[in-house]
Amino acid sequence: MFSLLEKLGRWLIFEINHVGRSGIFLSYAFLGLFKPPYRVYPFLKQIYIIGSQSIFVIFFTALFTGMVLGLQGFYTLSKFGSEGLLGSAVALSLIRELGPVLTALMVTARAGSAMCAEIGIMRISEQIDALECMAIDPFRYLIAPKLLAGILSVPLLNFIFNVVGILGGYLVGVKLLGVEAGSYWNGMETSVVWEDISMGLVKSLVFGLVIIWVCTSRGFFVHLDRTGGFGAEGVSRSTTVAVVQSSVSVLLWDYLLTAVLL
After folding, report:
1. Tens digit of each residue's pLDDT, the chain (262 residues)
2. 99 burial level (CB within 10 Å; 0-12, 13-18, 19+)
3. Nearest to residue 212, comparing CAs of 57, 58, 108?
């Protein structure tokens, strides 16, 4: 009994310490954004890694999501004789919920895991310690470009996701199942308002911040892992934990933001 309580206490203290470390980590990363000298190339490189290299997976995820929405929406709405509302259903589902969430999950899986592994390997190979020895701020040098690129890239990827998803719904609903093209686009035009678009934009900005924060902090503190962090096994474990925590955080923040913005 006492052994169980002791383990529970150690776990609780470690998690509280980790939350505190992560909060300080994010503060230093934000401060790194404003510290001169400002370097453009690392930022553009991260835009390429997080944004450009994710377009392929975002495109096909959005296309098939839109096609499934078109198919499911058609058969659901046809029961009520409301096939003309298919465009509204597809657009609102994508813009308000599925677009931001699925974009964030895809970026987490493709770019977030790579960032965690990269920072973790730099930590265990003492490259981050070497930067500190040379008086180079690792937050400004390593984390800040990733943070800014993530906050900007995820909303842009979400925009691409929404456009491709709507076209996927159009292909299935209009071209395959025979819904009138005019009703598809007109329904979308009359039902989608600025509040829907702004909700998706706010979610994307927050999700971008959460992904970069969770994944980079897990890699940065890989040596402080509760089960032993140094070595390839520690990096592998931290990368897995980063992807899981980032994905769950995205879903949690999706619920909280939806409750606040509705």
Report:
1. 777 888 888 888 888 888 888 899 999 988 888 888 777 888 899 999 998 899 999 999 999 999 999 999 988 888 887 778 888 889 999 998 999 999 999 999 999 999 999 999 998 888 988 988 888 888 988 899 999 999 999 999 999 999 999 999 999 989 888 888 888 898 888 888 888 899 999 999 999 999 999 999 988 988 877 666 567 788 888 899 899 999 999 999 999 999 988 7
2. buried
3. 108
* Cis status of the peptide bond prior to 100, with omega within 30 of 0: no
What is the spatial distance between Cα 204 and Cα 156, in angstroms, rounded to a whole number? 9
Integer Cα distance of 107 and 61 in angstroms: 11
d(CA 163, CA 127): 41
| Contact criterion met (CB below 8 Å) for 92 and 192 | yes
Alpha carbons within 13 angstroms on the beta-carbon side of residue 168 total 26
DSSP helix/strand/coil, 200: helix
125: DSSP letter: T
Do residues 124 and 236 lie in contact, with contact meaning Cβ atoms separated by under 8 Å?
Answer: no
CA 96 to chain centre: 15
Q: What is the Cα–Cα distance from 84 to 70, expressed in whole angstroms?
A: 12
Residues 6 or more apart in contact with residue 20 via CB below 8 angstroms: none
User: Is the overall model pTM greater than 0.85, yes or no?
Assistant: yes
- Locate 75 and state its tokens: 């058969």
